[in-house]
């Protein structure tokens, strides 16, 4: 049998990390954790409890006191076979993907106490290995010992167009200009934050999927996985 490993997939916003990680996990029989969804769920909680204003002002002291009330779980939807995010028992998968949360999640995820709380949960999830996890600091902070680290990039315009297509497919009308601004601002905030900034781990393999097909990306990831597990 091949050894079980941890696969850490990091990268820029809207570059398809979650889809890539989810499909790899399904193909190799590993558990999948979308850490971005966890930060989005905290952001949604803060919005719903008036701890976060639309202009990005966070009542950090109040949110820190209430972190213990925030329970984030992932459950497989039997109809789709996909893992969906639940916040305190409620399915919030659709709610956390909207532009309101997207515009504010980088501010919430930059709070040190939020990152510490969620990183501790993520590390507990990976104790048994056999896990694919995606985010922005998986290979640098959460699992620096991960056997396979991939850093995903794509051009700003391609990432924004993918996000526009995704939102419009779900019935949300957005402009390319609005989404492109959001993508670039999230990159800036993620890279400049003091706590666990977005950066490529020194031993991560870069995967630029600007011009890759979904099948080409899948084949490349499987090749890297097999190499890391001594499968081939």
Account of the protein in words:
The structure is a single chain. The chain has 232 residues and is α/β, with parallel strands linked by helices. Helix content is 47%, strand content 16%. It is built from nine helices and eight strands. The chain has helices at 17-28, 35-48, 60-66, 99-109, 112-125, 138-142, 156-169, 176-192, 214-228, and strands at residues 6-11, 31-34, 72-76, 83-87, 90-91, 131-135, 148-153, 205-208. It is globular, with a radius of gyration of 17 Å. The protein starts with 5 loop residues before the first strand and ends with a helix.
Helix and strand topology:
Elements: E1 6-11, H1 17-28, E2 31-34, H2 35-48, H3 60-66, E3 72-76, E4 83-87, E5 90-91, H4 99-109, H5 112-125, E6 131-135, H6 138-142, E7 148-153, H7 156-169, H8 176-192, E8 205-208, H9 214-228
Parallel strand pairs: 1-6, 1-7, 2-6, 7-8
Antiparallel strand pairs: 3-4, 4-5
Helix pairs in contact: 2-4, 2-5, 4-8, 7-8
What is this entry, summarized?
This protein is an alpha/beta fold and 232 residues long.
Q: Got a strand count?
A: 8
- pLDDT average, as an integer? 92
Beta-strand percentage?
15-25%
- Can you count the helices? 9
Tell me, briefly, the overall form.
Answer: globular
Overall SS class: alpha/beta
Spatial arrangement of strands, main beta sheet? 2-6-1-7-8
Helical coverage, percent range: 40-55%
- Helix and strand sequence: EHEHHEEEHHEHEHHEH
Q: How far is it from the N-terminal to the C-terminal residue, by CA?
A: 12 Å
Most strands sheet: 5 strands, parallel
**What oligomeric state best describes the polypeptide chains here?**
single chain
User: Which value, in Å, is the CA radius of gyration?
Assistant: 17 Å
**Uncertain ranges:** none
């Amino acid at each position: 049998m091949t050894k079980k490993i941890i696969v850490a997939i990091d990268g820029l916003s809207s570059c398809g990390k979650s889809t890539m990680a989810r499909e790899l996990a399904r193909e190799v029989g590993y558990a999948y954790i979308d850490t971005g969804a966890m930060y989005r769920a905290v952001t949604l909680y803060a919005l719903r409890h008036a701890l976060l204003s639309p202009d990005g002002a966070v009542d950090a002291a109040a949110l820190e006191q209430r972190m213990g009330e925030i329970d984030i779980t992932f459950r497989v939807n039997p109809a789709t076979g996909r893992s969906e995010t639940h916040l305190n028992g409620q399915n919030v998968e659709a709610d956390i993907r909207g532009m309101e949360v997207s515009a504010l999640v980088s501010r919430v995820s930059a709070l040190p106490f939020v990152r510490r709380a969620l990183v501790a949960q993520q590390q507990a999830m990976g104790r048994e290995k056999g896990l694919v996890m995606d985010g922005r600091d998986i290979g640098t902070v959460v699992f620096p010992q991960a056997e396979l680290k991939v850093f995903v990039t794509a051009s700003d315009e391609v990432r924004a167009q993918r996000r526009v297509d995704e939102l419009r497919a779900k019935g949300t009308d957005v402009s390319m200009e609005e989404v492109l601004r959001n993508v670039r601002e999230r990159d800036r905030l993620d890279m400049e934050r003091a706590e666990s900034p977005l950066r490529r781990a020194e031993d991560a393999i870069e995967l630029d999927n600007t011009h890759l097909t979904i099948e080409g990306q899948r084949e490349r990831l499987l090749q890297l996985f097999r190499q890391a597990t001594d499968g081939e």
